[in-house]
Amino acid sequence: MNNEKTGILIKRLRQERGMTQKQVADRLHVSDRAVSKWERGCGSPDVSLLRGLAAVLDVDVQSILAGELNPNDTDGGNMKRMRFYRCPTCGNVLTSTSEAEPSCCGRSLKPLEARAAEGEHGLAIEEVEDEYYVVMDHPMTKSHHIAFVACATDERIMLVRMYPEQGAQARFPRMPRGVWYACCTEHGLFELRGMQQGRYARKGI
């Protein structure tokens, strides 16, 4: 940790939120002199205070340690660049269209790496009137099942959660051509892009 850089960032974030040093100090149960010391680069927050300080300033702990914010490159929020994160503890699913550092159940989550959808992880997609009917030939047991199926277009995403003992099937409204995803609790994320053909990709999808 560079005390000077961290101090400058703490001061900047505090002022952006219209807070005084005393208000920050009161939230952390320290003296305002301690906050002043941090901002002048004459010391650094104790490790035990970092999580609380990050919450007060509405940033992540890593930004405080680095003494800087790292904004993402502008990508227009293209949904086809969607990143998926799944908590291995509770199964919670999070998404982002750019770099992120999400966490759940005390764990830092890494984006799931997508592989081509094939075999038992392939998606059979049929047009039924104004909907897409998606079916997968995949086990749906408690320890091994499809957690979700999703479709992402340029401007939106639709995700359907799935649960053990239910069929691996779902209905989606008709949308512009997009990228299809399926997440297996044991083998990770799989994707079907563009006009990919084969047993599990029907023409026109």
Automatic annotation (TrEMBL):
SMART domains in the cross-refs: HTH_XRE
Ranges of residues in domain HTH cro/C1-type: 10-64
PROSITE patterns assigned to the protein according to its UniProt record, in alphabetical order: HTH_CROC1 (PS50943)
Keywords assigned: DNA-binding
Protein known as: Helix-turn-helix domain-containing protein
Species assigned in the record: Raoultibacter massiliensis
